[in-house]
Amino acid sequence: MLSTATKTIQSAELRTQAATARMTPAITAARAAKIQFSVHEYEHDPAASSFGLEAAQKLGLDPQRVFKTLIVELDGGPLGVAVIPVSAMLNMKQCARALGAKKAAMAERRAAERATGYVMGGISPLGQKKRLPSVIDTSALSFATIYVSGGRRGLDLELAAEDLKHLLRASTDSLSSPS
């Protein structure tokens, strides 16, 4: 028969293991930076056509406050990161200009996954394998906090846009057009 203290310790260890199992590089990066953030999980529907809009809907949020992370190819070579509202479309000309390039195009799926270490639909701007030049849509600054992918489908992080900007060493610019 286990004592109450032993049961309490085992219960705490199980909770720690469960939390560690959900740990992603994005969460690790946010914790290491000692910023304030919160984790929001939801049941991902594999049939969802838009991962970002699904997150906004399942979390009961305004889609303007939930941001997607897009990986772009700049001038046919290096990659960059654009963080825009899930309800918007990326303006490639504005993105290229903001990242100091002449042209921008969506990166191929494999290149995006290889550079970030994340699977498409779960690409977080935080904790990527390679530090890429990044730009955040200026609309993010109009909210006290925004939501970005936590590094897997069904997981979002809520944090201050200024903290995200600082962690990514990102600039801000007008990047989006309404979809």
What characteristics describe this protein?
179 residues, alpha+beta, YbaK protein, 5-stranded mixed sheet, 3-stranded antiparallel sheet, 6 helices, 32% helix, disordered N terminus
CATH topology-level fold name: YbaK protein
CATH architecture: Alpha-Beta Complex
CATH class: Alpha Beta
- The share of residues in extended strands comes to 25-35%
Distance between the termini: 62 Å
Poorly predicted ranges? 2-21
Helical residue percent band:
25-40%
Arrangement of strands in the largest sheet: 5-2-3-6-9
- Average pLDDT level: 88
Tell me the count of domains: 1
Would you count the extended β strands for me?
Answer: 10
CATH fourth-tier homologous superfamily: YbaK/aminoacyl-tRNA synthetase-associated domain
Oligomer: single chain
User: What letter string, H or E per element, gives the SSE order?
Assistant: HHEHEEEHEHEEEHEE
Computed CA radius of gyration, to the nearest angstrom: 18 Å
Secondary-structure-based class equals alpha+beta
In words, what does this structure look like?
The protein has helices spanning 4-21, 25-32, 51-59, 92-98, 109-116, 161-168; strands at residues 37-41, 67-74, 79-85, 88-90, 104-106, 134-137, 146-152, 155-159, 171-173, 176-178. By secondary structure, it is of the alpha+beta class. The protein has one domain: YbaK protein. The strands form 3 sheets. The chain has a 5-stranded mixed sheet with strand order 5-2-3-6-9.
